[in-house]
């Protein structure tokens, strides 16, 4: 089912010139992206107005009291949100400490909790990335902390694991963007990571020249890719020898960048930009060419959502698709048919009721006092890259959502867990980006979709003024923010949310049976 229209536009130019200018400032050799003049830009103007079917909640559930995905203003004010909401999924165990940062990632029986600068430094005993032993999911315990400069400087969305080579890596991202520091660890013994690069990237006198906000591995673990938010600077770090990481390619792909997803063969990247994705041919880097180039294949832009977060390449049968996630603007998740990546098509969208244009004012009404983010997805995970059966997503204030994706034409929600609100605990949660951001009470990213919906006559702006309308500052943490990739571990999901920290969650057997070849992936 093709549900969006597209029209070709002119390709972006001037990228090569800008890349060379930045490389001169950084003092590194850069190969600008060639062949972009022939790469088309496509624009999708369809705005999805349908939500996926709700989950049918079984025994033991504590369902949402309002529309799908919402934490109503009344629940926030009367304390109901402190009980959380659950449907076919329950908490096994967790470790809150001072908050879960932006991302946690997992390997084997371990989980790694990111740092959010500068709040993490207010915890003098464990300021770095926390290594959790989850051998007993009911009682996770802190094993050790990683305190290299990259880990202390705030890892933002760069903390990632490569299972093929048993590596953990991250860059320092103090405030949305960072540069210089990058550390790689051997996690063969996952509870005690071993630092591999003591020189370049870790030694404070030997920084590497890159701009970072997000990062991730190629599937084979030989390259760590770093993307910067503004400008959209992309860097490939060769870690074939992790003890001596070296930059082998850099380029400027546009005005802004974010996360990405890489195909299993390592040859193609779906790179997030401010309003869509850019498709890149990264095969020369994957092959290890001495002077690699990275041609642009196509760019896809849309009005339904913005700040695209990342993409997950998958296949159904032998046909390739991607799930791509919009962090703000109510765009939800888009499913692209990428059989021809130069002429891709949107075939499905995944949205919750609270994200629909008709509910934009209600969205703003309930999210006031919750700070800048509200009800949008952030990171998603499929339970296997080939013929996936389930998709789990962190959905900011809507918690963890799980969908049946066996049939792309009949996607439905099967479970959710929105953890108990940590209302009023702002001061204690120093490693929570939610707590630190709550100096701002207004859901800033809601105003663009609200203006569009009002202009199109799809919502009544008066609905937005509810009992929390005056909370323009000092948010109260009345609903958590969930950002981390929720990774499948059998019938459990391991993840973290900003306020509640690490959580091991149990999916009911009635809604999910893990496939024999389960292999969680989020595309990097």
TrEMBL record:
Organism taxonomic ancestry: Bacteria, Bacillati, Actinomycetota, Actinomycetes, Mycobacteriales
InterPro entries membership: LVIVD, Quino_amine_DH_bsu, WD40/YVTN_repeat-like_dom_sf
Name this polypeptide is given: LVIVD repeat-containing protein
Annotated signal peptide: 1-37
Source species of the chain: Rhodococcus jostii
UniProt KW keywords: Signal
Pfam families reported in the protein's UniProt record: LVIVD
């Amino acid at each position: 089912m093709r549900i969006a229209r597209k029209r070709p536009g002119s390709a972006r130019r001037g990228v090569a010139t800008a890349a060379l200018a930045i490389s001169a400032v950084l003092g590194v050799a850069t190969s600008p992206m060639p062949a972009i003049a022939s790469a088309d830009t496509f624009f999708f103007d369809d705005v999805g107005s349908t939500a996926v079917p709700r989950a049918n909640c079984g025994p033991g559930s504590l369902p949402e009291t309002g529309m799908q995905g919402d934490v109503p203003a009344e629940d926030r004010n009367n304390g109901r949100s402190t009980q959380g909401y659950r449907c076919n999924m329950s908490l096994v165990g967790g470790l809150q400490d001072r908050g879960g940062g932006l991302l946690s990632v997992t390997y084997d029986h371990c989980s790694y909790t990111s740092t959010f600068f500068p709040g993490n430094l207010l915890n003098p005993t464990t300021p770095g990335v926390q290594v959790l032993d989850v051998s007993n999911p009911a009682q996770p315990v802190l094993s050790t902390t990683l305190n290299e400069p990259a880990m202390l400087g705030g890892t933002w969305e760069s903390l990632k694991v490569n299972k093929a080579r048993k590596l953990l890596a991250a860059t320092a991202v103090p405030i949305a963007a960072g540069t210089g520091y990058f550390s790689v660890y051997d996690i063969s013994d996952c509870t005690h990571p071993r630092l591999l690069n003591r020189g370049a990237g870790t030694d404070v006198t030997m920084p590497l020249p890159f701009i970072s906000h997000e990062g991730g591995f190629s599937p084979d673990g030989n390259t760590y890719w770093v993307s910067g938010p503004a400008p959209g600077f992309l860097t490939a770090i060769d870690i074939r020898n992790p003890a001596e990481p070296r930059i082998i390619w850099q380029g400027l792909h546009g005005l802004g960048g974010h996360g990405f997803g890489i195909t299993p063969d390592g040859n193609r990247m779906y790179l997030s930009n401010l309003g869509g994705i850019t498709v890149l041919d990264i095969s020369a880097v994957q092959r290890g060419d001495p002077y690699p180039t990275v041609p642009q294949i196509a760019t896809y832009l849309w009005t339904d959502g913005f700040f695209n977060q990342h993409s997950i390449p998958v296949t159904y049968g032998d046909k390739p698709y991607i799930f791509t996630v919009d962090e703000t603007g109510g765009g939800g998740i888009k499913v692209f048919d990428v059989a021809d990546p130069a002429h891709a098509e949107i075939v499905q969208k995944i949205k919750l009721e609270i994200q629909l244009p008709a509910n934009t004012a209600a969205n703003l009404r309930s999210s006031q006092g919750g700070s800048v983010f509200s009800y949008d997805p952030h990171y998603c995970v499929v339970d296997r890259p080939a013929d996936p059966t389930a998709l789990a997503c962190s959905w900011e204030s809507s918690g963890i959502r799980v969908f049946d994706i066996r049939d792309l034409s009949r996607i439905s929600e099967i479970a959710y867990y929105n953890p108990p609100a940590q209302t009023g605990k702002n001061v204690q949660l120093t490693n929570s980006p939610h707590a630190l951001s709550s100096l701002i009470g207004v859901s800033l990213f809601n105003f663009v979709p609200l203006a569009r919906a009002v202009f199109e006559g799809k919502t009544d702006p008066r609905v937005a003024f509810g009992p929390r309308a005056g909370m323009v500052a000092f948010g109260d943490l009345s609903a958590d923010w969930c950002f981390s990739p929720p990774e499948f571990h059998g019938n459990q999901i391991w993840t973290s949310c900003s306020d509640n920290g690490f959580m091991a969650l149990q999916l009911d057997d009635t809604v999910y049976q893990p496939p024999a070849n389960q292999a969680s992936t989020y595309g990097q």
